[in-house]
Design a protein that fits this description.
The protein is mostly beta strands. The chain is built from no helices and eleven strands.
Length: 119
């Protein structure tokens, strides 16, 4: 069984920084991609950033230049460094890991961590 546990959320002032972490535990398959998604109240879950096994990254336009995603494959951990945060970054942040089990891939989700940006 795979578990993803996020940490690092909380309350931060606009313009400040926050670092989220997400670590996978249990029976871990090869992790092809890792990502962070977020869901604001009343809105759909949206992509914030992703990183492939090879280190290629993608970012939503709204976070580009402010957020940085990184991974430590040896620790099965993905990070999201959030800088110059804005009130509109307030959301529950979820990590996702796409694992390759040989004949199929499956995406696992964490439980979410709340980020609140005060203006």
């Amino acid at each position: 069984q795979v578990q993803l546990v996020e940490s690092g959320g909380g309350l931060v002032q606009a313009g400040g920084s926050l670092r989220l972490s997400c670590t996978a535990s249990g029976t871990i398959a090869s992790i092809n991609a890792m990502g962070w998604y977020r869901q604001a109240p009343g809105k759909q879950r949206e992509l914030a950033a992703t990183i492939t096994r090879g280190g290629s990254t993608t970012y939503a336009d709204s976070v580009k230049g402010r957020f940085t995603i990184s991974r430590d494959s040896a620790k099965n951990t993905v990070y999201l460094q959030m800088n110059i945060v804005k009130p509109e970054d307030t959301a529950v942040y979820y990590c996702n890991m796409l694992m390759n089990w040989g004949t199929y891939e499956y995406g696992y989700w964490g439980q979410g961590t709340q980020v609140t940006v005060a203006s």
